[in-house]
Amino acid sequence: MSGREVCRAARLCETMRPPVADCPAGFTLVEIVLIIVIAAVAILPLSMLFANTSIRSGDARNATIAAQLAQAKMEELTADKNSPTRGFSYLIAANYPAESPVTAFPGYSRSVAFAPDSIHDGVTFRTVGVTVVCPNIPPVTLTTWFTNY
C-alpha cells in the first residue's frame, strides 16, 4: 500500500464513524428510573428480613435467660438437698414460693413444682420441676428427681 492509499483508507474510516454528538454519554432518564425501581424492589424484602431477624434474636436472648434462671433455681434445690442442715425433707413447695418477677429480671417469673413422692426398690424419690415464664417465648421447664439417700 502506498502512502496515498493509507491516507484514503484513514479518511474512509473517519467518515464511517458517527460524530461525537450522536454518541450517548451516560444514562437516559428512563434507565435511571428503571434502576431506582429495581433497587427499591430488591431492598424492601431485605429490610423485612433484617427486621424479622432482630425480633427473633430478642426471643433467643429471652429463652437463654429463662433457661439460665431455671438452671440457677435447680442448683439451689440441689444445694438444699445436699445440705446437712436441710436435706431431702426440706424440698417442699412451702420453702420455694413463686417469684414474680424474678429479682433483677423484670418480666420473668419462676415457680417450683413438686410431684408426690414415689418409691421404687425401697428408694423414695421426688420429681421436681422449675418453670420460668417470659413474654414472647414458650415456658422453659427443667425437671429432675431427687432421692432420699
Question: What would you say this structure looks like, in words?
Answer:
By secondary structure, the chain is of the alpha+beta class. It has one domain. 46% of the residues lie in helices and 19% in strands. The chain has helices at residues 3-16, 29-82; strands at 109-114, 118-120, 123-133, 140-147. Strands 1, 2, 3 and 4 form a four-stranded antiparallel β-sheet that branches. A hairpin with a 6-residue loop joins strand 3 (123-133) and strand 4. The longest helix has 54 residues, at 29-82. The chain is rod-shaped and about 120 Å long. It starts with a helix and ends with a strand.
Q: Which helices and strands occur, and which strands form pairs?
A:
Elements: H1 3-16, H2 29-82, E1 109-114, E2 118-120, E3 123-133, E4 140-147
Antiparallel strand pairs: 1-3, 2-3, 3-4
Brief summary:
The chain has about 150 residues and is α+β, with helices and mostly antiparallel strands. The protein has helices at about 5-15, 30-80; strands spanning about 110-115, 120, 125-135, 140-145. β3 and β4 (about 140-145) form a beta hairpin.
The secondary-structure class comes to alpha+beta
Count of the domains: 1
Order of helices and strands: HHEEEE
Q: Indicate the overall shape.
A: rod-shaped
Roughly how much helix do the residues carry, as a percent range? 40-55%
Determine the strand fraction and express it as a percent band.
Answer: 15-25%
SS elements, strand count: 4
| Overall pLDDT level | 86
Low-confidence stretches: none
Report, as a whole number of angstroms, the end-to-end distance. 112 Å
Largest sheet: 4 strands, antiparallel
Number of discrete helical segments:
2
Rounded to an integer in angstroms, the radius of gyration calculated over CA atoms is 38 Å
